[in-house]
Design brief:
It is built from 3 helices and 10 strands, in the order βαβαβββαβββββ. By secondary structure, it is α/β, with parallel strands linked by helices. It has a single domain, classed as Metallo-dependent phosphatases (Purple Acid Phosphatase, chain A, domain 2). Helix 1 links the parallel strand 1 and strand 2. The structure holds manganese (II) ion (MN). The site of manganese (II) ion has 6 residues, from loops.
């Protein structure tokens, strides 16, 4: 099972189109907010189901603010992250994920990728596919693949 995780596209889809073309057939696309009304377009180009939540720039959106979904045997919290002050650090979102008992917390908002695989929980931020802010400022997204043993592997991917 192949899952693409993106965030903070802010109505710029060139890099997202490149990423989709590069990865080939997907089983699921996850968007962690700030699509700014482009969710139908994104679902169309993904060619697979889309799980999406609203971000702090989705003012008029009727998307859910957060979701808990299952991917394989993993329980996953999808949240943009601004409710947990992720710009200041991961402490609050980590606590929220642990209190909900999820296996993976996926968030965005900072436009900086994070992949922190702890013993009890995974913190994952794919960065921004459109407006990266980490050092080097390359657009990023994350791939999650579930193998035949049911285990997930995560890969941070960069667009040059
Ligand atoms: Mn954003």
């Amino acid at each position: 099972m192949k899952v693409m995780i993106v965030s903070d596209s802010h109505r710029q889809h060139g890099n997202l189109e490149k990423a989709i073309e590069r990865e080939g057939r997907l089983d699921l696309m996850i968007h962690l907010g700030d699509a700014e009304g482009s969710e139908f377009y994104i679902e169309q180009i993904a060619g697979c189901p889309l799980e999406i939540i609203s971000g702090n720039n989705d003012f008029f959106s009727d998307l859910a603010r957060e979701k808990e979904i299952s991917i394989g045997r993993y329980k996953v919290l999808l949240t943009h992250g601004h409710y947990y002050n992720v710009s200041l650090g991961p402490e609050n979102i980590l606590e929220e994920g642990r209190s909900r008992g999820v296996d993976i917390v996926m968030f965005g908002h900072t436009h900086k990728p994070v992949l922190d695989i702890k013993e009890d929980i995974v913190l994952l931020n794919p960065g921004s596919i459109s407006y990266p802010r980490q050092e080097g400022k390359k657009p990023t997204y994350m791939m999650m693949e579930i193998g035949e043993d049911g285990n997930a592997t995560f890969t941070l991917r960069t667009i040059e």
